[in-house]
Amino acid sequence: MMELNLTRVDYLQAGITSPKTLQILPLTGKTQKIAVGDNDGMLHCFGLRKGQVQTVFQASSSNRLSRVVLGGHAGGARDRIFTASGTEVNAYTKKGKKFLTFTTNMSEPIVSMYVEGTDLLTCGNFVFNHYRDCKDVNYFLSNDKINDVLCLPADKRNGITPILACQDRVLRVLQGSELLYEAEVPGPPVVLELYGNNAGEDGNEILYGTSDGRVGLLQIGPLVPNNRWELANEKRGGGILCLDNYDIIGDGILDLLVGRDDGQVEVYSYDETDEPVFRYSYSGNESITSVKGGIVGSPDFPEIVCCTYAGWVFALTTEQLTKEAGPQQVIADAAAVAKIENLKSELDDLQKKVSDERDKYQQTANSKTAVSAVPLFPIGDKFVLNKDDASYTLSLELQSPIDNILLQSDVPVDLLDVEKNSAVVSYSACNPEEGNFLLATYRCQANTTRLELKVRSIEGQYGTLQAYITPRTQPKTCQVKQYPIKPLSLHQRTHTFDEKRPHNRLTLKGQFSLAEVHSWLLFCLPELPERTPAGDSANFQFASTFLDTQLDCIYRRGEAVFRSDNVSTISILKDVLSKEATKKKIRLDISYDINEDSINHTLRMIHPKLEYQLLLAKKVQLIDALK
Question: What is the pTM of this model?
Answer without folding.
Answer: 0.86
